[in-house]
Predict the structure.
Amino acid sequence: MFNKLIAATLPYMPKKLVWIFSKRYIAGETISDAVRESKKLNDQGIKVTVDLLGEFIKNLDEATENKEAYLEIIETFEANKIDGNYSVKPTFFGLLLDEEVCYQNIRTVVAKAAEYNNFVRIDMEDSPCVDKEISIFRRLKKEFPKNVGLVVQAYLKRTLNDLNNMMDMQNGVSKLNYRLCKGIYVEPEEIAYKKYEEINEHFLKDLDFMFKNDVYPGIATHDKPLVDGAYKLIEKYNVPKDKYEFQMLYGVTPELRKSIVEKGHTMRVYVPFGKDWFGYSTRRLKENPKMASLIIKALFNRG
């Protein structure tokens, strides 16, 4: 109860206090911060995907600025020879303001990544965005078959059907590539599973579908039962280690992450950075209120 109270009040706390919690989960505010932390991860044998924080913009000028920022990120990361790719949120590029403008902005980013034979992941957002984001993915996949992927969310009841419907894009030139995560947005019970056991069950069903259909999954979880379930499916289908990867958030469950790497599996860490870290931080804490205890410990350590 105490942790939930902290999580609920966090958006109203001073930013300096929130940063005590946030700095563990965010690479920093600048590109140089993200490059530095990405290099550290690369040195540990871990790949990255970089994300500039921010979403749900208010005007299309912001969308243009965000596009230009991502072009700079790509040039900087490639110049620094970072072993990683790029994650984008469509609302950050104008999805809820003008879908075509959003598509063109993301297309420009994907085209830049493709110049370096690299890859852009389209993040999945809340349910009103899902069909629009699948549509954008379809268009980009047709033009850039090897350079774009999508996120799917196991807690949405529609996901397995979506996976099946998108199989028409699978071909010998380029496999479908999805990040499979549980999902973090608050959705009505009519469209989303709510219970921990239910969500985990459908996560593994979605992963099973991907392995059976030769889809490349990014297995994005910090939940040990799901990691163990993924191991069992990998063994069941005898999946080669270059046909999947595990993914985790920066700063979360480092010991579990280390154990996966030590077993020889590919690991990719989602590295968020940027000045708009406050909203990301409060959402992370609402998603996992138990982390509120870290704030309290940090306060006492400062004292």
Remarks:
- The CA atoms of residues 11 and 153 lie 25 Å apart.
- The mean pLDDT is 90.
- DSSP finds twelve helices and eight strands in the chain.
- Residues 60-79 form the longest helix (20 residues).
